[in-house]
Amino acid sequence: MKRIITAYLKPYYGRMGLGVFFKFTGSIMDLIIPSILAYIIDQVIPLNERLPIFYWGSVMVVCAIIGMVFNIIANRMAARVASDATEVIRHDLFARVMYFSNHQMDTLTKPSVISRLTSDTYIIHQMIIRIQRLGVRAPIMLVGGIIVTMILDPVLATVLIGIMPVMAVLITQVSRKSMPLFAGLQQAFDGFVRVVREDINGIRVIKALSKTDYEKSRFDAINTKVVNQEKKARMTVAVISPALNICLNLGLVGVVVVGAYGVNNGTSEVGIILAFMTYFTIILHAVVAISKLFEMWPKATASADRIVQALDSVDALAVVEVAKPEETVEKGAFIEFQNVTFSYNKEEPNLTNISFALAKGETLGIIGETGAGKTTLLNLLVRLYDPDQGTIRIAGRDIRSMDPRELHQKFGVAFQNDMIFEATIEENIDLGRNLPKAAIAAAIDSAGARGFVAEKLAKTEEQLTIKGANLSGGQKQRILIARALAARPEILVLDDASSALDYQTDAAFRKAIKENFDETTIVIVTQRVSSIRHADHILVLENGAVIGYGKHKHLMKSCEVYREISYSQMGVS
Amino acid sequence: MRRSQKFDKPQNRKGTLIQLGGYLMRYKWRLFAAIALTIGSNLLALVGPLLSGYAIDAIELGTGQVNFGQVFYYAGWMVVFYIGSAGLTYVLEVLMIRVSRQVTYAMRRDVFNKLLDLPVGYFDVHQTGDVISRITYDIDTVNSSISSDLIQVSSAVITVLGSFLMMLAISPQLVLIFAFTVPASILMSRYLVKKTRPLFSRRSQKLGALNGFVEEMVSGQKTLKIYDQEEHTIGKFNIKNKEAVDAYYNAEYYGSMIFPTINFINNVSLACISVFGALLYLAGAMSIGQISSFVLYSRKFSGPINEMANIMNDLQSSLAAAERVFALLNELSEAKDTDKMSDLSNVKGDIVLENVRFSYDANQVIIKNLSLKAEAGKLIAIVGPTGAGKTTIINLLMRFYDTAAGNIYVDGNEVQELTRDSLRKSFAMVLQDTWIFHGTIYENLTYGKENATMTEVVQAAKAARIHSFIEHLPHGYDTILSDEGTNISKGQKQLLTIARAMLLDAKMLILDEATSNVDTRTEKKIQEAMRQLMKDKTCFVIAHRLSTIQNADLILVVDQGDVVEQGTHEELMENRGRYWRMYQAQFE
């Protein structure tokens, strides 16, 4: 919370200060008005003249006008500051999230990142507004009220000051108790959102298995849990308001009694007691407002902490200075893996001691069983993760020493089940790179997407729905391939990107690549031998280790696993 | 875009209120009790100023003449009434928390149940983030306002009425002041409320849009990063973000006027009371104690009117939120099963499609005129270029969508006359898009069959060649999986869903690219298991790897929504047509 206030509200201190000034002056006006009433009763009425009464009455009206105008200005400034600050917080958080390494995303998890960006920033937005509104007005009314009453009658004011510690203790005790309750609530709520998201994603499976009733009861459990947590937390804070009311009203009774002695002794006046009572109501409202802030505080702190945690999340993939570009082991290698070992959880390795080298324009095919580490290898190549041991070089440079931008620009990548965005076909292929139309058209041709794109009503302007739901699996893949090709990258990385294509389309696609992307170095992960049998190098992976490396013919002889895979696909009939 | 049209829909305030009322009426007795408590606690509190007025009159006698007996008498009663009032307030709050939590619970449940009842197509056109924003933020907004506003409204009514009567009793002349100030505040509030209402619903929309955007971009973050689109995406985000905070500010802009304006009107009335009260005192028509009581009551009187403005503000935003919630609740569900429909039982698995026609939207016909016959226990393979409508056939068989024309029969029953549950239960399904939920591997495997024994589960996992992987995990079958997690590969997920399908005992099986993410070697290893899985079942298999479907009883080659070729592998190979060309392409 502190970070949010110091770092994000700091630029607005000036405006907030001005806002406080307006709020302060406006609130003072509200405070002065009852004093004028006391003055009228104690000083003006005994004069028995009408004119001064009207005079002081109009002073009250003027104060009221100033109070109104200043309060409106202050409220608007507060809203503006809150909106501006929230905009910056959200922007920073989103910008940070966009640059998250995969490791960071894995640690925080996507749903949690999303809720930090949405509901947590929203809570902070509301909090900033309330801090400025109530947080300024309430203390002013509280302190101002006390000061004015002190001036009016110090003895009576002690009654008021006497009950303040009681109220303070009450508020702090209750909020201390409620703090963990609200934190627990937030956690339960995350689980709640997860169930909803999961079920939206799995709706087809749920319906197919007729599990809707089961899902309803699963949801019911988490729904009940959230509601109960919430009830517990709110019950705890519900004590505050009535308890404060009792304190202040008892104080009011105290004022009447003590005031009675004062009047009896001639040290006090009736008008003052009367004014005191009005101030008591004002102070009561101020204290209640402050207690409301205390109610919000735990929730806002929890949100702020979650935002800050995401903002502070350390990027493990910083660009490292490599002393000097080491000599590549193999001369002329464009892409080179040297003894690369990697593990996601740092316990069991997912890749062990991988080495290979590719010259520019060559094609590498990677094949192997499910879970053998094929995708992991690609993740390392495009530097979504850093290897635990070993080095990856492109054009002789350690990729860790390259600016990520420079590195990424070399690549065109289509991941397995990659993301289609809710945008037009063209926007999905271009993906914000402002590529020339001709390049996009060429990519569509090479990816074999020309046919179905032409059938769409709006051609390349056709709007795709969320996650490409209005495309078939193969159409999606061709869009993704077109995306990878469009900028004519130096290195093309395809992770099982043609698995949903029928063989004919796949073959046509390979032909197009051969013709148009001769210069491009290609890394293909696939399960189809046909996709890679003509590749310059084929890497066979099993359990994260290389068990075969070479050309198709060589592997057919030397690698049993490769032979088996190959036969399983082609040998039949 | 479809979504934006939705936002432009005229707001149905009345309908929203009626629906909201429906929820509240379920708790009507508790609400009555709450209102009774509110009346009680406010009446008790109303007595306070009267008593303090009496006490002040007893003090007013002046130096040395204060009637302490009277002062203590009234002070004592004040203590009693205030404590009583606070006690009732507490009970009331507890009650309202319970009611509002129950309403929240019910609304969330209804929305969620609705989500499960909606046709699957709904989720193809609505961002998950926006849906989640409705079930969380919108429902919260509605209920925080129910719990506080309802009490405040009833408490306001009592306090306003009560203090008005009290003031009338003290000085009817002074009450005349309110004849000017009250209408002024009401007019002012109404004007502002009218201004702010559309602004609040805009605020909800923009927030929903922002949430949807964030959801989509965070999901695709890996891709965006690889294409160096961070800045570009941040730029797009900035626009949405700006729109959202501006919509918030605009709603606040007018909203922030309400309180100070009404406070102003109150201060003016206080000034009037002071002036005219003083004049009346001079004329001997009022005592100081009476002025004091009157001022206190006037504060009480205007307090709720002040709050009315805040409440209006709250109600605005909660109405806008409620509208979004009810818009979702009022979406058309999948047509309900009627009594006329019968359960599909003793399934044999004969499936007939007759002149089926279907399109997702009117412009593009996906399936033109499809007829096919699948006899019980046969293996039907569907092949064809991507986008030919293969998956759509599955959607129709499972009744995720209904045909536009033509009929589908299972065991001679037209599917639209069967209950969906019984129809869907008779299918087992493995899809290309695997779905794993947050839970243990065991829970994920037994998802379709909760009563499966551990032995059965292990058997299925072994058959699907995933057992040894599971065994190697630190917690074995109790390992928690999540859809986001990296602890499991896409292919392993698919093997899990195959194992899941193996546990079902359905008579019909759908394999839609079921092994597309599994390598062919593993696929070969699980072939025996797949055969076991398919045994005695009518199977629909969509596959690109033609090797997997060569032993099919019937191969349908579809293109552009029509069956262009059909027959067994041998027949089709002899034909040297479409299928043959596709087959040859494997070896190119």
Q: How would you describe this structure to a colleague?
A:
The complex is a heterodimer of chains A (573) and B (588). In chain A, strand 7, helix 17 and strand 8 form a beta-alpha-beta unit. Chain A is built from 20 helices and 10 strands. In chain A, the strands form 2 sheets. Chain A has a 6-stranded mixed β-sheet with strand order 6-7-8-3-9-10, with helices on both faces. Chain A has a 4-stranded antiparallel β-sheet with strand order 2-1-4-5, covered by helices on one side. Chain A has 573 residues and is of the alpha/beta class. Chain A folds into 3 domains: 311 residues, ABC transporter transmembrane region fold, CATH 1.20.1560.10; 166 residues, P-loop containing nucleotide triphosphate hydrolases (Rossmann fold, 3-Layer(aba) Sandwich), CATH 3.40.50; 73 residues, P-loop containing nucleotide triphosphate hydrolases (Rossmann fold). With 588 residues, chain B is of the alpha/beta class. In chain B, 63% of the residues lie in helices and 11% in strands. In chain B, strands 6-9-10-3-11-12 form a 6-stranded mixed β-sheet. In chain B, strands 2-1-4-5 form a 4-stranded antiparallel β-sheet, with helices on one face. A two-stranded antiparallel sheet of chain B has the order 7-8. Chain B folds into 2 domains: 316 residues, ABC transporter type 1, transmembrane domain (ABC transporter transmembrane region fold, Up-down Bundle); 235 residues, 3-Layer(aba) Sandwich (Rossmann fold). The radius of gyration of chain B is 35 Å and the shape is elongated. The interface between A and B is large, with 188 and 179 residues.
Protein topology:
The complex is a heterodimer of chains A (573) and B (588).
Chain A: H1 2-8, H2 13-44, H3 51-98, H4 102-108, H5 110-152, H6 154-201, H7 203-208, H8 212-238, H9 240-265, H10 270-312, E1 335-342, E2 351-358, E3 363-368, H11 374-381, E4 389-394, E5 397-398, H12 404-409, E6 411-414, H13 425-430, H14 437-446, H15 450-455, H16 473-485, E7 491-495, H17 503-516, E8 521-525, H18 529-532, E9 537-542, E10 545-550, H19 552-558, H20 560-571
Helix pairs in contact in A: 2-3, 2-5, 2-10, 3-5, 5-6, 5-10, 6-8, 6-9, 6-10, 9-10, 14-16, 19-20
Chain B: H1 2-8, H2 13-25, H3 28-59, H4 68-117, H5 122-125, H6 128-170, H7 172-175, H8 178-219, H9 221-226, H10 230-282, H11 288-329, E1 351-361, E2 364-374, E3 379-383, H12 390-397, E4 405-410, E5 413-414, H13 420-425, E6 427-430, E7 439-440, H14 441-445, H15 454-463, H16 467-472, E8 480-481, H17 490-502, E9 508-512, H18 520-525, H19 527-534, E10 538-542, E11 554-559, E12 562-567, H20 569-575, H21 578-585
Parallel strand pairs in B: 3-10, 3-11, 6-9, 9-10
Antiparallel strand pairs in B: 1-2, 1-4, 4-5, 7-8, 11-12
Helix pairs in contact in B: 2-11, 3-4, 3-6, 3-11, 4-6, 6-8, 6-11, 8-10, 8-11, 10-11, 15-17, 20-21
